[in-house]
Amino acid sequence: MLDTIVVGAGIAGLTAARLLHAAGQRVVVLEARDRVGGRMWTDRTAGFSVDRGASWIHGLTDNPLTEIVAELGLDTVEFTVGSFQAGGRPIADHDESRKLMDRAATEQWLADVETADALFQRAIADSGDDETYAEATERTLAETGWGAERADRLRQFFRHRTEEQCGADIEQVAAHALDEDAIDGDEVIFPGGYDAIPHAFAKGLDIRLATTVTAVTRSADGVRVDTDGGSFEAAQVIVTAPLGVLKAGTIAFTPALPDAVAGPIARLGMGAFNKVFLRFPERFWPDGVYAIRRHGRPGVPWHSWYDVSAVSGHPMLLTFAGGDYARAIEQQTDEEIVASVMGSLRDIYGDAAPTPVAHWITRWASDPLALGSYSYVAVGSSHHDHDAMAEPVDGVLHFAGEATYGQEPATVHGALLSGHRAAERVLGAPLPLAGLTGALEPAN
User: Fold this and answer.
1) Strands (E), 240-356
2) Where residue 93 sits, what CATH number does that domain have?
3) Is the pLDDT confidence value at 444 over 60?
4) Do residue 111 and residue 198 come from a single domain?
5) Burial of 102 by CB count in 10 Å (0-12 exposed, 13-18 middle, 19+ buried)?
6) Residue 5 pairs with which residues in a beta bridge?
7) Phi and psi torsions of 356, nearest 5°
8) In-domain check, residue 60
């Protein structure tokens, strides 16, 4: 019998498996996909890297990924506007009439965001779990006394922030959802592809790809994990399936999960956040900008385009769709989506914006092995639900993954740290993260 079964070969599962393997355990990893990485997925079919899943390290300071990237010798590019920040880096801001905002207008805009954010923190200080981000936003804007257009510009900014940070509409997100949304240090992206990290973690592990887990049964003897290719038995199991999969009930747990764990799974939200990459024959936007942004209602649904040319080596923009709109476009053809994005870009640049020569579009909510992009604090849930979801069940069943790590949910490093925590609980002893990085080989 195995010591531990790990369900899922994303960064959480690979972290846990690698630490347990290094500690001398007999571990097998069961992965439904035909690849490792989970929601870290780099497409290299075009001859360069397109990260269809995770793209950023969100904050290099005190982040375990920083040391790992250094040990692997991975190239990075600083790109600190990945969390829908109002400023901090050069952004080509366009107002409601398509006009490029001058320095004075931009400074006023940034001051308005700072003022509104301060008021927003006061607005949610006494909010309960049942208040929405939208309701707190409206109370904030009412307090400013600003005119309709000025207030609506902030309203749309707050709306887009929840779409990008949570993958959910502002009415679906709890007022407290972004309470812990703090980033320390620069953010970076990866010219060679982010999935170099899970591929490095996977080396030397017993990983069974294309093996779909259907059931997990607990007993006095340990656990049995049933798959479409047979059953496995072990003393303990770590389940790292995405929250969307757990919410869908595609893995049967026997006995049923206790309310202390099942409740958080039901209450937390699974967001949808899709990427649209567009490669152009030539550059038509200004040099030196990190992003192009359209403010106010004309910025719905497409509002921000990020210059990722440094990754591809070609003129290339990345835009996002979040929340209900992200789910809606998954039912459209690629051609319809590209036409919609280009319509918004040409509203700013006119005929100077040429037809893209290539595109890449994700559909995470329709992916049966993800059923969404990442978790968020939905109305009626709280940050505590993330960690409560990871509480061990009967001493043999553990959950890990970004959705289970309340301090840093919806991040790669949060998923990594959740895998570390699960491994420590399995062994009942602290494990230094050096056990994870010590045997890593530099990436090719």
Assistant:
1) 252-254, 269-271, 273-279, 291-294, 304-307, 316-322
2) 3.90.660.10
3) no
4) no
5) exposed
6) 28, 237
7) -60, 150
8) no
**Owning domain of residue 287:** 84-182+273-370
Is 70 domain-assigned? no
**Token pair of 400, please?**
């890990």
Q: CA–CA separation, 248 vs 256, rounded Å?
A: 14
Number of folded domains that form the chain: 2
Residue 400 forms beta bridges with which residues? none
Q: Is residue 68 part of a domain?
A: no
H or E segment at 43?
Answer: strand 42-43
Whether residue 71 lies inside any domain: the answer is no
Q: How many CA atoms lie within 13 A of 355 on its CB side?
A: 3
* 285 and 407 fall within a common domain: no
**For the packed helices 148-166 and 103-124, what is the interaxial angle rounded to 10 degrees?**
70
The answer to whether residues 297 and 352 belong to one domain is yes
DSSP reduced 3-state for 405:
coil
Judging by beta carbons within 10 Å of its beta carbon (0-12, 13-18, 19+), is residue 35 exposed, middle or buried? Answer: middle
Q: What one-letter code names the amino acid at 256?
A: A
Predicted confidence (pLDDT) at residue 434 exceeds the cutoff of 80? no
Q: Are residues 292 and 364 in the same domain?
A: yes
Helix (H, G, I), strand (E, B) or coil at 163: helix
pTM of this prediction? Answer: 0.95
| Residue whose structure tokens are 């954010």 | 117
Cα distance between residue 205 and residue 29, in whole Å: 8
Pair of tokens at residue 10 = 């994303």
- The H or E element spanning position 22 is helix 11-22
pLDDT at site 61 = 86
Q: Are residues 297 and 419 in the same domain?
A: no
Please name the residue that has the structure tokens 């294309």. 210
C-alpha span between 384 and 98 (Å, rounded): 43
Q: Count of residues for the chain? A: 444
Q: How much helix, strand and coil, in percent to the nearest 5, is found in the chain?
A: 35, 20, 45
Q: What is the pLDDT of residue 435?
A: 65
Q: List, for residues 205-237, the tens digit of each pLDDT value.
A: 999 999 999 999 999 899 999 999 999 999 999
Per-residue pLDDT of 68-127, as tens digits, reads: 999 999 999 988 875 578 888 899 999 999 999 999 999 999 999 999 999 999 988 878
Mean pLDDT of 365-384: 97
- The tokens of 394 are what? 């009967």
Bridge partners for 227 per DSSP: 213, 230
Residue 440's pLDDT band (cuts 50, 70, 90)? low
